[in-house]
């Protein structure tokens, strides 16, 4: 993507709010009972009316475990009014600012980034829940060298922690946990390191601890030179692990039916991943050219229905950190389940 005026404005906004410092329900009719795989034949999930135009939504083409890519692979956009239009790779810290300005129409990043973007005046809304943390499928993992001597939270004072961006889960979940264990987080050097570089960077000693998300955490998990300290499940039992999908406000207003089709497609894909984790790993490995043995998966919120506790959790943290004024953003400002056809259904 070219760097233009709106992108520069988005990046300035980003700097304002962070860069400074068990199986789910399977939707009926979609699955082969013997294999659990998606059927290739049969009626589409949404049948367009005659004359309905397909809306292309702008989306990043990143090397990640992502429900948009899986939904497309599984055929969940077929017969709908929505189709992804990939616009190239976009660095993680830029995703939410670019959703907020409309340079991309959808993006998935953690709740605190969305809250901060809304507080700064950007036009976006969470329309679908995403990943959730399970003990066996955490949202992120923490790795050190085996010979580092680092085994407790207090050992990290004076050390360098690498993580994928300021303003998101890796920063705030980690700082909250460290403070709870008596660590002065101001004595830690915080360095942005992309997930796909975290394993190598900690192994070579350029950082002391790497916080890595799936699918790339699998390489570090299997690296004999490294030791896993924790996962985010160990830190907060998953309260901070919801990684939702957000949409640009103008896109939502102009294309409500296409928005609904996107949310339906990713909800179906999330349920499919929960029921077919190994197949999902294979698709991801093939798509990004990664060795299957190193690919880790996410688990997803059932039907991707957004709940309020994970949002309030981050509002409280952002207010306590002084990142947003107290009372400026309410939970209802951040999300809507209006476009999720499964909202209100029992799981």
UniProtKB/TrEMBL annotation:
Q: Which UniProt keywords apply?
A: Signal
Q: Where in the cell is it found?
A: Periplasm
Q: Which InterPro entries match?
A: SsuA/THI5, TAT_signal
- List where the protein spans the membrane: none
Task: Tell me if Membrane is a UniProt keyword of this record.
Answer: no
Q: Which family does it belong to?
A: Belongs to the bacterial solute-binding protein SsuA/TauA family.
Q: What name does UniProt use for this protein?
A: ABC transporter substrate-binding protein
Q: What is the lineage of its organism?
A: Bacteria, Pseudomonadati, Pseudomonadota, Gammaproteobacteria, Pseudomonadales
